[in-house]
Amino acid sequence: MTADERAEVERLVAGRGAGPYRWVVLGVGAFGAGAFAALRMGLPSLGPAIRDDYALTLGQVGLVFTALAVGTMVTLLAWGMLTDRIGERPVMVAGLVGAAAALVGAGLAQGFSGLLLAMFAAGAMGASATGASGRAIMGWFGWRERGLALGIRQMALPLGGGIGALVLPAFAAGAGGLQLAFFALAGLMLGAALACLALLREAPERPQVLAPLATTPPMRDRRLWRLGAASALLVVAQSAMLGFVVLFLHDELGVRMELAAFALAAILLVGAAGRVRAGRVSDRQARRIAPMRRRALAGALLLAVLAAVTTAPLVLSVPIVLAAGVATMTWNGLAFTAAAEISGKARAGTAMSMQNTIVAIGGAVSPAAFGAFVEFAGWAPAYLALAAGPLAAWLVLAPLVGEEDQRVARRTARLHRSASLSANPEPVT
Questions:
Q1: 199 & 233 share domain
Q2: pLDDT at residue 13 in the model
């Protein structure tokens, strides 16, 4: 074992990443993911401008949002597989530049069909930042820091979306109109692409003695499908809460629209911070599944309580709404990290993209289903039904707890054996 490999083993035993440059990688990865989130989560704030500029119906405006979501879903897995083959840097640069070009096309689109095509292309290209940014961060951070790092990366998503929702309408309301808003998003994507080009490097190879444990391809790994199923159940509650919390507070509880919107912003910000804390806790415990299950159970309990207080005074119901909303948001980074660690770095891009594809599908179908359930049965039964998702996820994840314990034990044993070899190298004869 070389001196460099011995130093790497020592870092791995301590759970540290490969030097201070890893924080640059985290910043670049979060920037890329946050830039795409500004489009994906911030686009609805341009809904009135899109409707007025193109003289669309509400259904047609919904199709614009759907085109972006579908473009994202159908390419996530392909981008992840390509990342595992050629690396994070070329994938993120090419994808983000392509998304920027598509957004320029959206700004120049003269009709509804052109706008739909541009939104589909922007989603299809921008999706590259999802798995690639996570894989880059995983490669540069040790297992005792990875939960925190990927939690920060996941925090960039609601932050990017929130900033987009605040800033984009101001661009659209100015002299440049909707075209300027799309051009601003294109500039953000291009800036993220340039940051990747200038600053992102492939993570160093680990010593051969520490080759990945995983051998099953992600698409055939039952553990990843189980994790994905639990994540889909959790994202149903998350998407429904975020999509309808303003309407619930305003229509059911009589809260002013401005205050209801502020409550949504508070859920997003506190939830973003909760993702970082969840990652840090998981690092201390060297576990992802057990903390994820605890958050699923907490979300189920709070949603059940919310179902019981839908007609209670504001002083009681509003704090429960906020707590339930935050509880549904804090698990994402843990699931993302668990997918990467189950698969190993060599297939992390595919595993993370597979995870995100499943989550995207669950997030796409849940708001419409929840809204229909509210119209049919009312808010209280709908929230009680929503609680079933996190509770089911808690049950689905149970078999992965013991598997993770065994995997961590094997990894720790291998690391310490390697550390022993590095401390007592065989004599040269």
A1: no
A2: 47
CB 132, CB 88: distance < 8 Å: yes
Q: Are 336 and 370 members of one domain? A: yes
pLDDT beneath 70: ranges in the chain? 1-18, 205-215, 414-429
Report how far residue 305's alpha carbon sits from residue 298's, in angstroms, rounded to the nearest whole number: 11
Task: Locate 418 and state its tokens.
Answer: 């390697």
Structural contact between residues 219 and 350, judged by C-beta atoms closer than 8 angstroms: yes
Instruction: List the one residue out of 129, 72, 65, 125 whose CA is nearest residue 99.
Output: 125
Tokens representing residue 40 in the block: 């994906």
Question: CA quadruple 110, 112, 117, 123: dihedral positive or negative?
Answer: positive
Whole-number pLDDT of residue 306: 95
Could you tell me if 35 and 169 lie in one domain? yes
Exposure string of 49-75, with b = 16+ CB inside 10 Å and e = fewer, is: bbeeebebeeeebebbbebbbbbbbeb
The pLDDT value recorded for residue 210 is 44
129 and 23 share one domain = yes
Same domain (yes/no): 194, 266 = no
Work out the number of other CB atoms within 10 angstroms of the CB of residue 261. Answer: 16
Same domain, 106 and 170: yes
| Predicted pLDDT at 7 | 52
User: CA 228, CA 221: separation in Å to the nearest integer?
Assistant: 11
Q: Which domain holds residue 153?
A: 19-203
Helix/strand/coil (H/E/C) assignment for every residue in the chain: CCHHHHHHHHHHHHCCCCCCHHHHHHHHHHHHHHHHHHHHCCHHHHHHHHHHHHCCCHHHHHHHHHHHHHHHHHHHHHHHHHHHHHCHHHHHHHHHHHHHHHHHHHHHCCCHHHHHHHHHHHHHHHCHHHHHHHHHHHHHCCCCCHHHHHHHHHHHHHHHHHHHHHHHHHHHHCCCHHHHHHHHHHHHHHHHHHHHHHHCCCCCCCCHHHCCCCCCCHHHCHHHHHHHHHHHHHHHHHHHHHHHHHHHHHHHCCCCHHHHHHHHHHHHHHHHHHHHHHHHHHHHHCCCHHHHHHHHHHHHHHHHHHHHCCCCCHHHHHHHHHHHHHHCCCCHHHHHHHHHHHHCHHHHHHHHHHHHHHHHHHHHHHHHHHHHHHHHHCHHHHHHHHHHHHHHHHHHCHHHHHHHHHHHHHHHHHHHHHHHHHHCCCCCC
Say whether pTM exceeds 0.85.
no
In the prediction, which pLDDT does 428 show? Answer: 41
